[in-house]
Design a protein that fits this description.
Elements lengths: L1 H12 L4 H51 L17 E7 L5 E7 L33 E7 L7 E7 L6 E7 L4 E5 L7 E8 L5 E7 L4 E3 L1
Antiparallel strand pairs: 1-2, 1-5, 2-3, 4-7, 5-6, 7-8, 8-9
Length: 215
């Protein structure tokens, strides 16, 4: 029994053999190669998730602006507060790499605001000191989706008409949500963000009641 105990101690003192070290290094090298090979794919997946959650967060920000009645000023020498009727997000599938955040500015033909983005000419402005033509909607921000990754784009929007664009408008003081170009039988739209290189996609669901959900 004593001999067996001594033999066990001798075996333990031998430590790790050269073959075991080589095998361990080989296994680590295999796993490292797998991670390196999959890194671009993982990077795209993370970018897709970031872009989707950013879209949902921007929708939430626009909703808060619309319901709180944030004001903006014009670009005249003596700035005047514009009678903004609401705020919204505009997405046009003919330009799938970006979407707009706008202020719904009343005009002579739409004194209460059109509750949609109705200005074909993009006019950038600021919440604090915009320089705009007051006879049309004002673009507060243009969000470029490829900033997250060059492979990203807006793949589609479910439940909209043939125009392939949509305005999601939020109006104070009572919560009023207008989704322009939504089909009459639907209560929500689904904005789908995808990758050019594969079929991966995620989506943001927007309800007529103002609920926003990431899928």
């Amino acid at each position: 029994m004593v001999r067996k105990f001594i033999c066990n101690i001798i075996k333990k003192d031998k430590g790790v053999t050269l073959i075991e070290i080589i095998v361990s290094i080989f296994i680590i090298a295999i796993f490292s190669a797998i991670l390196i090979a999959n890194f671009p794919i993982m990077q795209k997946k993370f970018a897709l998730s970031r872009a989707t959650y950013k879209l949902a967060q921007n929708l939430g920000r626009v909703r808060d602006m619309g319901f709180s009645g944030v004001t903006i000023k014009d670009g005249q020498s003596t700035p005047q507060v514009l009678n903004v009727k609401g705020y919204g997000m505009y997405i046009d599938l003919s330009q799938p790499k970006q979407y707009l955040i706008y202020a719904d500015v009343p005009t002579d033909s739409s004194p209460d605001g059109s509750k949609s983005f109705d200005n074909p000419v993009v006019k950038l402005c600021s919440l604090y000191n915009p320089v705009i033509d007051t006879k049309g909607d004002c673009v507060l921000e243009i969000i470029d989706i490829p900033k997250e990754h060059s492979d990203l784009y807006i793949k589609g929007i479910n439940n909209i008409g043939a125009n392939r664009n949509v305005s999601i408008n939020f109006n104070p003081p009572n919560p009023t949500i207008t989704i322009n170009n939504i089909v009459s039988t639907s209560s929500n739209i689904k904005i789908i963000i995808g990758l050019n290189s594969d079929s991966s996609q995620r989506s943001v669901l927007v309800n007529k009641t103002g609920l926003i959900d990431v899928k």
